[in-house]
Design goal:
The protein is α/β, with parallel strands linked by helices. It has three helices and three strands.
Length: 98
């Protein structure tokens, strides 16, 4: 199976990454590929649980929270702000300007 060298998972909330892409993260990390997860909201207890679950898959998965949006308030953030945040994430991880 040909796997990309890296994967970037953008999860609106902590644990969405495991629910939506846990199998992919496991497969990628077992094959020595770079795995990055970025959470869109902050929820400290939920994030700690999600990071612990990710670390049970692999210690090599990098988790970052680049947004400062409060959990359960994402629907109140204007679309342009979310798009701007996503552009910043892509620029950081892929060194490409959008």
């Amino acid at each position: 199976m040909n796997l990309p060298e890296s994967v970037l998972i953008l999860a609106p909330h902590p644990d969405d990454d495991i629910i939506g892409a846990g199998g992919l993260l496991s497969l990628m990390s077992r094959n020595g590929k770079s795995c990055n997860v970025v959470y869109g909201t902050i929820d400290e207890p939920r994030a700690k649980e999600a990071v612990a679950a990710l670390k049970s898959i692999s210690e090599n998965i990098i988790v970052t929270s680049l947004y400062s949006h409060v959990d359960r308030m994402l629907s109140q953030i204007p679309d342009y702000q979310i798009i701007s945040d996503l552009e910043k994430v892509i620029e950081i991880f892929y060194n490409e300007e959008i």
